[in-house]
Amino acid sequence: MSVSPSVSGLSAPAHTPTQADLLAFVRRTAADAELIASLPLDPEGRTWVRLEGPGGSEAWLIGWPPGTGTGWHDHAESVGAFLTAAGELKENSLTARLPSDGWKTLELSEDFDQERRLPTGKGRAFGRHHVHEVLNESTEAHAVSVHAYYPPLPRIRRYSRSGQILRLEQVERPEDWQ
């Protein structure tokens, strides 16, 4: 994995960024071919560069080697957006908001799952407590994506999934990512 210094973002709104603002930012950023091409790609693990997002948001440019993914997780109280800048990603998500705290294991009904294919130029915004996993299912090609979150990520909850059973496994905080 590689971590690089911040890269200056594009003009920031003067207000708290909305999901629409974040989606517009990731679209503009993904259209910067020079920035996308500058991301170092590692054949083994994901790489990333921190970006300056709009209105104090947290933003990242992420490289995905073939066959990699995030595992099931959420971004706690943050809203966000991401867009595939190169290659194709797949997002599996849950269609209903889960309780934010006070549980370790949930049994999901069968109609909770949603799958999205996100080829180059496609992305999405999402609200608080959005549970998903993002995957590069290609066996040959890297994918690159741009992500933005507001407020900056206070924590990420990681889950395991076996069939319809979702289990909270770990809570990460920013100090864990340094």
Written account of the structure:
The protein is mostly beta strands and 178 residues long. The chain has one domain (3-177): Jelly Rolls (Sandwich), CATH 2.60.120. It is built from two helices and 13 strands, in the order βααββββββββββββ. It has helices at 19-30, 33-38; strands at residues 3-7, 47-52, 58-64, 72-74, 79-86, 88-94, 105-107, 113-119, 123-126, 132-135, 143-150, 156-162, 165-172. Strand 12 (156-162) and strand 13 (165-172) form a beta hairpin. The radius of gyration is 16 Å and the shape is globular.
In short:
The chain is mainly beta. The protein is 10% helix and 43% strand.
How are the strands of the largest sheet arranged? 1-2-3-11-5-9
| Average pLDDT | 90
Assign the CATH superfamily.
Jelly Rolls
Number of domains: 1
Which CATH class?
Mainly Beta
Strand portion: 35-45%
Structural class: mainly beta
Which of globular, elongated, flat, extended, rod-shaped describes the shape?
globular
CATH architecture: Sandwich
CATH level-3 fold name:
Jelly Rolls
User: What radius of gyration results from the CA coordinates?
Assistant: 16 Å
- Provide the low-confidence segments as ranges: 1-13
Number of strands: 13
Count of alpha and pi helical runs = 2
**How are helices and strands ordered from N to C?**
EHHEEEEEEEEEEEE
Distance N to C terminus: 13 Å
Helix content: 10-25%
Quaternary state of this entry equals: single chain
